[in-house]
Every structure is written in C-alpha cells, then in structure tokens.
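User: what does the whole thing look like in 3D?
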Amino acid sequence: MTKVDCNIDVHHLTRVEGHGNIHITIRDGKLVEATWAVVETPRFFEMMVRGLSAERVPFLTSRICGICSISHSLASIRSLERAMDIIVPPAAERLRLLAMHGETLQSHALHLFFLAIPDFVDTPNVLPLIKSHPAIVQSGLRLKEAGNAISALTTGRFTHPVSLVLGGVSKAPEKKALAALKEQLEGVLPDLEATDEFCATLTIPDFVRETEFVSLYNGRTYPFIGGDLLSTDGVQKDENDYLAMTNEYTEDFTTSKHTRLSRDSFAAGALARFNNNRAFLHPKAKETAAAFGLEPVNHNPFMNNVAQLVECHHIVHDAIDMIDTLLDDPLSELKTPWKPKAGKAAGAVEAPRGILYHCMETDETGKVVKGDCIIPTTQNNANIHLDLKALAAQALGDGKNDKEIQHLCEMAVRSYDPCISCSVH
Amino acid sequence: MQHLGFSHNKIKIGSFDFTCCEGCQLQLANRESTLPAFLELLDIRNFREISSEKHDDYDIALVEGSITREDEVERLKTIRSNAKVLIAYGSCACFGGVNSLKNRFPLEESVKEVYGEKQIDTLPVRRVSDIVHVDFSIPGCPVSKEEVERIVVSVVTGSMIGLPKYPVCVECKQKLNTCLFDLGEICLGPITRAGCDAVCTTGKTPCLGCRGPAEDINFTSFTELVTEKQLPVDDMNEKLGFYNCFEEFRHDKS
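Assistant: Here's the predicted 3D structure for the full assembly of 679 residues, as structure tokens:
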C-alpha cells in the first residue's frame, strides 16, 4: 500500500455562509495536522450597540446575520425586555415563535437543498439537480418559500425583520393572510414526505466522535425562545449563567472564538436540540427521526442534516396548530408600552444553527452601555475543528485518498451548517 | 434565452461578499417561483455561498459588504480588473452600512473590547466606491430581489437601468399608511430613496434610510420638521447615522 503524503488546503470553503478554511497535512500516511480556521473579518457588533437606544438595538443586531436575522433580533429583544422588566402580551409571544418557525424552516431548507444535498449526490451545486431531480428541487423550493412566507407575514419581510419590537410586535397579520398561510403550509406536507423518501436514498457517512451537546430546555415544549441551558453531559444552568455555559477563549489560528464546557468542545444546533428535547417533538417529526434511526444521544455530526429535516416536520405541523390558535385570537393586544430602565439580562434563543445568546446592559435612559453576543457557530467551531482531526484520521485508516478525505471533511463542516460571518460578528 | 423574440447569450456573473451579513446574496435565492427562470439567464462563474465552482471570467461582478481589512482591498481590486461591470449591492457596499457604527470608536478600543489582548487586523469601515470604480449601485438592507432581478435582466438585455428618484413617502402614501410623524415617531421616509415598497413603515416601524438619500432632498426642511414637532434631535441623529447614508448632509454629527 502506498503511503499518502499530501496537503489539503481548502481556502474559503464553498456552500457555507462566510469565510473559513480547512487545512490538513498528511505525511507518510500519518495525519500531522487538521485545522478548521475562520478567516472572516470581524465587524465588532458588541461595540456598535454601545450608546444606541434599546429600541434600535434589535434592528442593528439582526444585521449580524442574513440567514438568521429573526433569531438575532429576538435574542436582543428578549435580553432587553428582561433587563427592563417588559412583559409582552401572549399573542405577541405566539407571533414571535411563529416568526422563529419561519426562519428555521427557510434556513433548514436552504441548507439541506442548496448547500448539503449536492455533497451527497456529488455535484458542485444544486443547479444540475434542477435537471436531474426536478421534483425534489421543487419540493425544496416550496419548503423554503413556505418558511419565507411565515417570516414575511409575521415580521414584514424575509430578512431583517420589520415588526419585531421591544414590548411585542408592531403590526398584526391579517386573518385572511394567516388562513392563506395555513393552506400553504398544509400544501408542503407532501413535500416533507418526498424529502424523507429522497434523503433515505442518500448514504450518511459513518463517523462518531463522542461530544457534549448544548441547547435550550424548558421541560414542556421543543424549545426556541428562552429557558434553561442544558447539556447532554448533565449540566443545567439558568439563562443568565450563559457565560459559565460557554467559556469563550481565543485561538491564534482563527478569528472566531472557541468555547468549551465539560470537555474540549461541545456542539449546538438541530442535533443538540434533538438530543436534549426529542420527547417534545411533534409525533410526525418523531416518526421521521425513527425512520432514519436517529435516537438521543446521537454523536454523528452528519446526522445534524437529518435532525434538521426532523425539525422541518415539527415546525410545519406546529405552525399549522399555532395559526389555528391565532385565528381564534382578536390580535388586538400585541404591544406593551414600556419605560427605559437600568438593567442587565441575557436572552437566549435557538437559532437554526443552535443556541444564541445576547446580553445587553442598559442605563436609566434606555441606552445600551454594554453588549455581548455568543453565536451558535462560535460554539461549534472548536467541535468542528476536533471533528476534522478525528475524521481525517479515520478516513486515512480506511485507505481513502486525498480527494476523498477532502470531500468528507468539507461535508462534515457543511453538516454543521456553519454561519461564519455570524460567528465573527 | 429569448427576450421579445431576440436571443441573448447567458451573462457570466460572479457574486462576491466582503464584510457583511450575506443577507443580500441570500435574497438572490429568494422569490423561489421565478428562481429557475432567473438562473436560466445566468452563467454563474463564481458564487461561493451556493456553488463549489470558481472561475475568474465574469462580465458582471455583484459586490456585497463593506471593506474593513487590507486583504479585502486587494481582493476587491482583482475583482474590479476581472469584471466588465461592477455592481455594488446592499447598504454596506454602497454606504458602509451599519458596520460604519464601528467608526465612532478608536479601532484599538474595539479590538480590546471584543478580543482582549489578541491582535486583530481591522481598518475603519469603507464603502466599495472608496476603493474602486462602481458602475452601478443597488442600495437596501437587504436589497430587494425584485430590484436586483430587474437590473440584472436590464443589463443582459441592454435596457435602461435606474432607481426611483422620489422618496419612500410616495410609496408609503400609496399604501394608505398613517404617517409615523403623526404617531410621534421620527421617520426618514421623507428623505430616503424609494424602491423598498415602504416595507418598514408599512410594518409600523420608522424608515432608517437604508436606501440612502432620494434625489434633490430638502434636508434642512426635514430637520425643521423634527424640531417643529418637538421630537428628540438625538433620536433623529441616531437614525440618520444608522446606515451611514446621510453623512454629506449632516453638519452637527453626534
């Protein structure tokens, strides 16, 4: 057997959000080095929020990310509402959760169909699939469109929400539009089934590296906004103790910070949510998980793709139920008036890629004096980095060549659906 | 492809992102119903976020984001020399965007606040036209896919391109919205370029001016309106500075 001797250097990995590089060095068939380095330019959002009025902050922080702007907006809103003791009307809470569902559905559909599936069928992008697998591409587009439709109706548009404000929401959706949205969502149920069938034909790489998974947990529902912080290693903390859950530190080779909890790294995202909260999924989502053999605690990062699909089922069914409740609500009380106040609190939400923390401190005039944001991909970067070492070593042991190792490593990074510019906010 | 019976070659296009949230390029994947037809028009030569193929021959370069690091300056110059037409899209590329809020603080202070003692390369935020010649700008945070589609199709078919010259107020009035000034809010609708379909004011939140100044605006009259209505001037200044779009008009910056 010839010994592999190569350098894999993926400069600006494609089909991910943002700029990151994979470097792998193999000499005499032995893995010397494998790194995942984020090279994104930092924007310094934590400075940018300084001195801004609280009400403007969610409009700024939503710009941390073009894919998960609703999550960022709601993390800031939750943090500031907790800091200034603002109580939000229940109908507004429901609309916000529906908005999160919209974002998660469009984000998962974008990732699964445009970014991830091309790897599994070995095409450079989704374009060849438009010709070779038109039905499944159409299903993907309809699912993404349905997610966007939820976001547009609940927040005013697809990206960078307009009507999510401190105290509630600024505008009620029309009942007629809500009813039409419900019909649209019922219309994509067959697309979910079709996606299940298509994904069942794909081969998910066999790779396991035991790690810790961190997500929100409320003991009642599949979590999206607020709650306790829970890890599969048994750590449970209050939302305000997010710093003790993340322990950020810097590394020289990457512009993103790294985080750790009980081990050298941990993972956030759909698989982490699933591993901690399977019991609270919609029955149809549980069925899909079972069909793919997904059970907690699953330690294969490639299964994050399946966990995203499972969540799509949950979201569509849950959104349909929520719209029924909203249709019975007069939607007259959607915003509580509030007064500025000095305070400080964390706001945690489950962004599509995992648990997201904002923590804002206000002065008595309602201006932000200090801000902190900890991003899901920041939390995943150390885990991705360590996965690459283990995966490259395993692939090398299996006798794979450099091209195959590169392909596998790229797939592994994409499975986390990294949002790199977010991670270097 | 066919347009009015004439056939056209596919246009070679590249999309490039600098310091930003990538929300503008994401809009290109929206409007799912027209997406396959739009893609049919294009030969995508370089678009890292959606494709693994990378080529350096493109007619149109769509450039998103502001410029905040030395390596970005070099990369942008290379893209300029490869492209026949360079279109800056999004408020970050056109004006610096929200990223410019960083420029209120000394760079060392920002680095220390976020990274502690770690050394980080960063420059004051600049727009694309500060570095290279820009042939056309499509503002917005984020851009409207409809507008990008219209402009790209116009470039392909050799049609006239342009943006609305009138302010957001025109579109807002067409939607029969209650004026936010009447509800006691400062709104930048009277001085901001339309084309967004008044999306923010329709959602009952004030316009923050992401599309930059409309043509021939009366800025003095706008500030007088704010003082006449006894609305807080610091709120107006915060809004004017949000996307860094009104710097040429502001004399008493805060």
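In plain terms: Residues 1 and 7 of chain B are 5 Å apart (CA to CA). Chain B touches chain A through 58 residues (CB under 8 Å).
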